[in-house]
Amino acid sequence: MEWAWLIPVLSFIAAPLIVILGPKLPGKGSFLAILAIAAGFVIFWAVLSGFLGASPDSSHCETSADTGSLVCDYQQEWFHAGLASLDQSVTLTWGTLIDPLTLAMLGLVTFVALMVQVYSLGYMKGDPRLGWYYAVHAMFAGSMLTLVLADNFLLLYMAWELVGICSYLLIGFWHERPAAKEAAKKAFIVTRIGDVGLLVGILLLWSEVGSFSMSEAFNAATTGAMSEGVTTTAALLLLLGAMGKSAQFPFHVWLPDAMEGPTPVSALIHAATMVVAGVYLVARAFPIFQAYDGDALLVVAVVGLVTALMSASIALVSVDLKRILAYSTISHLGLMMLSLGAFGYTAAIFHLLAHGFAKALLFLGAGSVMHSTEAQDIRQMGGLIKVMPITAIVFSVGALSLGGIPLLAGFWSKDEILNAVSQNRNPVFIATAFVVAFMSAFYMARAMFVVFFGQLRQGLDHAHESPWLMTAPMMMLAVLAAGFGLINFNWPGAFPGFGGLIYFHEAEDFHFNLWIGVLSTVLALGAFWLASLCYLRERISPDILRQKAPWLAVVVENKYYFDEVYQWAVDRLVLTVSGFVALFDRAVVNDVGVNGPADTVRRVGFVLRLHVTGHLYSYALAMVLGTVGLAVLWWLRSV
Amino acid sequence: MVPLAYFQLVSAGLFAIGLYGVLARRSAVLIVMSIELMLNAVNINLIAASSHLEGLANFAQFDGQIIAIFVITVAAAEVGLGLAIILRIHRNRSTVNVDEIDLMKW
Lengths: 639, 106
Hints:
The complex is a heterodimer. Chain A starts with 5 loop residues before the first helix and ends with a helix. In chain A, 70% of the residues lie in helices and 4% in strands. Chain A contains 25 helices and three strands. By secondary structure, chain A is mainly alpha-helical. By secondary structure, chain B is mainly alpha-helical. Chain B has one domain (4-93): Helix Hairpins, CATH 1.10.287. The longest helix of chain B is centred in the C-terminal third of the chain and has 31 residues, at 63-93.
């Protein structure tokens, strides 16, 4: 278990190696990244078995008072700052923290990253910058793994920003395309806005606790050493960072645009790295959120609910396959936040994993479709099951799972969330959550039916199944997307179920609330049935809604005008303020502060240079007068 | 013994003539010669002091003479260098009038 730090470090080593040695290696060194992450995946199992065998008596391990679960912390001194002699020394540490939450994330990240990297061998084949792609990919995976392993906020923040910069590089990977460039910048800047909140939150915790250590901060929050106001403020600031990274309302605008990157990158961002970092952060800092009756959690729940509802509705009308999936991701991240906000810690993490597998699968499937048809608009697709059956089947598995069809993973995880919401929040939340669940099923059904079923579209005859390098990872992900829910139950024997591993204070049994289960099943099946009527058999025209409420359709199709509002705000407010600042900079800082002294020196020099006449006798005279002057001075002094 | 003041008067007169030459002459060669005059005025002063102030505190017997020999050596080197420079200037600009040699100004 003490070797867990190797998991990210291997990927970090692979990245520069690929850049330096890549051009000389076969496949531009892509195998290095794959080997590194595959080794990480293997080490993950070793760490997992080590952790399952550990007890609170093992060295470095204890039962955390903050979360109630076993935690193993391997801490190292990093560096000293300040003067030890004056007793003002600050010692910073870094280390790996291994607890069930970390393990769950480690498994998800290493597995999905491995699948995506193998898939990319096929998808990115022949790209001139393949080496760079894999180098950044390795960095990305390494950063995310560091993020989930970090045992203090400083290291977490560093990894957090590394994730941000890697996502910027990957979204803008095809930077010859202006749209990709813009999308990369947008993703970076929007998430940065949230990151400021995170940074301030971390510094606030540091000033209160005197340490970046998570466990100390959690202790201070739960034992009451930190006042209610500070704790709630810190929680909300951390939430701000999480909202930026996890694309929560109102920071959700960057995620759909991030579709400009290569599709495997989208799969990685949406499933395993980047966006789940926000959910992870809230889950990790749950003791802070939950302290003092969890006032902050209500905000988390509302943010999650609004995000889920809004983006699910946009996904219903989007016509770009990848954007449908992107809005679906935002919506499901909202559900995870909602679940955390409703004290559904286990449910949120379970949904994070189930959604991760399904969404990676869906994106890889979408990539497979685009690889073969070179189209993104679902209106140009149809009946692709006839030409690419494997992709169609695995995509359908992912869609059904995410749509919440019973017995697949998404059904169980969504059920757990609805359960938590119905128990701990007021009925408005659960009612809206059901609406989201219905919409979620409907848009997944829509994407699945329109793209893969029905008549094969004209002009798609050339489409073909993708190579096995791409289909094999999808099939493995499909197995998990379908069967992952099975670990939710208490199986007879030693296995306590997912809730027995990942829980907050109390181990959770698998619970199945009959009315919620039945209702969500009915809703999911109903949504798929309705979608099949609309898009497959075309009995109902989806345009009915458009005719009944044209304004609603327009608003939703324009994504609630968020981009326009932000653009307006940037143009009118930010640029105006920037104009004043620029004026101040030019007039005061530049002209007076910088050029002023320079001008003075030049003018003085202009006058002073006149004494350099070039005439020998003037110099000689100056020498003589100087000597005489000195002599007179000396004489005067001696008298 | 000739009093020290006489030597000093001669020396001062010689130095003043040299100074006048340096300030008033236009020809570089004459200026160099005037500098020589000034140096020799100093030499006279030094030698005279050396023989008259013998036995005074802080003065060893041969100090003035030794310094005078240094001055002569340096003066010889200076004349060699100075005349060489003047020669080059003359070759280049066909003049040794220092009023016309004023390129080294602002």
